[in-house]
Amino acid sequence: MAKMRSTPEEFHRPLRRILVALLVLVLLAVFFLWRIDSPRVERFRAALIDRFVPSFHWAMAPVTWGLEVVQDFQSYARLYEQNQQLREELRQMKAWKEAALQLEQKNARLLDLNHVRLDPKLTHVTGVVLADSGSPFRQSVLLNVGARDGIKDGWATMDGIGLVGRISGVGHQTSRVILLTDSNSRIPVTIQPSGQQSILTGDNSDLPPLEFIEDPDAVRPGDRVVSSGDGGMFPAGLLVGTVVLGTDKRLRVALAADYQRLEFLRVLRSNALTAITDPGALLALPPLQGPPAPPAPLPSSAAEAGSNG
């Protein structure tokens, strides 16, 4: 009968069992050796550590390096988290900065409105600019005050420096302001110090021209332009701007109002004007109303001739 050949698996299995048993015995021996509390055993343990542990320094290097890598990764994770928090705080601070700048600008505009000196008889209503419909053909803005606030057509509007325009179109809650630069704007002005009268005519440009100046030679660039109050359109003495010489050699006005930052406008309440219902009254006085006058007495000669006839 032929003998059965042993496979490598049958040979390795008992060997693994023997090695595992020896390893367990060694570990148990080391465990019990370290648990024994005896001076001799303590000296043996110290001698064993002095003999073998320094020689295993190379074996501990990868473990030490691995621990350092783990610690560095944890530190990097903490730094990344802190960086994300700082980025979020920076975004919030930028938003707060923008809000603070907007509030500062609004506060500055309101302070400018309070610095304007007006006639004590004039009262005003302050409105916020809601929209700007500026275009090449129309220059106007929309305010958040209207008929409910007592706003009426024709009233003057100012920013913190000078005259801006007039009310043209009133709704219940909003009103439209035609700017001085609009082509439909015509206001009478006085040029100081010469006292020349003129008409400021809008032409949809930043520098509206002066028309119908009495004596142009008396006007110089840099002269102050104010509202004249003629016709009762605007109160007199409101600052409009200064005279400049345009590129077309025409006298124009650099407006004092800051048209690039119209946020708040002051609407000036003007006294109601007496409406003219009879244009003929501008030319001649109306006839006096009263009882008819008695006929004039005839001369004595005419009376005697009448009686003889």
How would you sum up this structure, described in words?
- This protein has 309 residues and is of the alpha+beta class.
- Among the domains are: 59-115; 123-269, Thrombin, subunit H, CATH 2.40.10.
- Helix content is 36%, strand content 22%.
- The protein contains 4 helices and 12 strands; from the N terminus they run αααββββββββββββα.
- It has helices at residues 8-35, 39-52, 57-115, 300-308, and strands spanning 123-132, 140-143, 156-158, 163-170, 175-179, 186-192, 196-201, 210-211, 224-227, 239-245, 251-255, 264-269.
- The strands form 2 sheets. It has a 6-stranded antiparallel beta barrel.
- Strand 1 and strand 2 form a beta hairpin.
- The longest helix has 59 residues, at 57-115.
- The N and C termini lie far apart (200 Å).
- 18% of the residues are buried.
- Residues 280-284 and 305-309 have low confidence and may be disordered.
Q: Which percent range describes the beta-strand content?
A: 15-25%
**SSE pattern, N- to C-terminal:** HHHEEEEEEEEEEEEH
CATH level-4 homologous superfamily of the domain at 123-269: Rod shape-determining protein MreC, domain 1
Terminal Cα span: 200 Å
Second rung of CATH, namely the architecture of the domain at 123-269: Beta Barrel
The proportion of residues forming helix, as a percent range, comes to 25-40%
Biggest sheet: strands, sense, closure?
6 strands, antiparallel, barrel
CATH hierarchy class name of the domain at 123-269: Mainly Beta
pLDDT averaged over residues: 77
| Strand line-up in the sheet with most strands | 1-2-5-4-3-12
CATH fold descriptor of the domain at 123-269: Thrombin, subunit H
Structural class: alpha+beta
What general outline do the C-alpha atoms trace? rod-shaped
Tally of individual helices: 4
